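Summary for the lay section of the report: proteins are chains of building blocks that fold into shapes. Here we show the chain for SCP domain-containing protein and then a coded description of the shape we predicted for it.
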Amino acid sequence: MERFRPPCLKPTFVRASYHLDAFVPMMKTVAVALLLCVAGGTGAWTAAESSPNRANVSVLRAAAQDQISASVPKPRRKRFITQSDMIAILDYHNQVRASVFPPAANMEYMMWDEGLARSAEAWAATCLWDHGPQYLLRFLGQNLSVRTGNYRSILQLVKPWYDEVRDYVFPYPRDCNPKCPLRCYGPMCTHYTQMVWATSNRVGCAVQTCYNMVVWGAVWRQATYLVCNYSPKGNWIGDAPYRVGVPCSACPPNYGGSCSNNMCYPGVSTNHIYWFK
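The coded shape description reads as follows.
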């Protein structure tokens, strides 16, 4: 018997009432979106100077190490997501993006990004039910989802993000909660808006099986944890997720006028699935 607990939304099928710090049983999927946009500051770094002799030794040592590394075959990196799950997530995002209403004039086709997938892997491996790491959240959007036990389809963890469309009225969120996961109450829609943020054209995800994972104060013996990172980040407060108009009528110049399935299309022959082959 599976247990499900959502932290921030109050779907119509929920029998129990939900409010701040409430503990709601019998839910299917839990999801938390990265809602706030943290302003990034500027910083500087300095490097210590070294003597010429030490620098020369370092260069020679690095060159020798490169030659040794090149002669040793590298083992294939273990991935935190299967190829079929990756395809399902990517296709579902693009289906949702292509069918927004009102129609989008500048919706960009979403592609898989290996760097984002690796950052998602690193965070999923922590099994922490929270957004992170903080230093990356200045630049990335992030959707999280978790459910107890195993899953039959990865879309069981992704579709609840789209389901929030019922609580969203374009162009700005209605009754969305921008303070989740710190203070959650009422319905949410910021998972959905991140999915359809026009300029968020890259995504990378990871799936992790977590044991004894703490989810809203309860310990789940076994949980399936999904982390998806997006770039460029969406959910900028005060901005609409896309421009309304004839599909592809306001695509960025770098797309060269290419349009496919109501989205600005980059004109590539693959969406980076070849990384899994």
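Put simply, here is one thing we learned. The mean pLDDT is 76.
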